[in-house]
Amino acid sequence: MREYKYDKPSIYIYYSSEIKDISTFNEVLFGIEEEGIPYKVKEQNEADFVELSYKAAQDSRLAVGIGIHSNGKIALTFNKLKKESPLFISSLNSEEKIIRNLGANAGRLVKGIAFK
Question: What is the domain extent for residue 59?
Fold first, then answer.
């Protein structure tokens, strides 16, 4: 039987390798799940959260990426935006609802519907 290596279209979430406990950004993942969009979480050596989000969006077949810095800064971007101009910037220290909404908005960006 032939084996295919198929990369499922997903939102990419790149986080700094300095983050040791990825459960710190679970709310982001829960928000994406609420919208029913698949995602992939990958550790990266890059530290800058804006750069991480930009790279994630460029690598994602859905053109949506999230970058998370070890200091808690988080960015959501779309591959058509300039690197230095992410769509949303927030902090993991914000209310859980805000962080979850950021994840949901990533899913809504893929769907092409209004943000929360």
Answer: 11-111
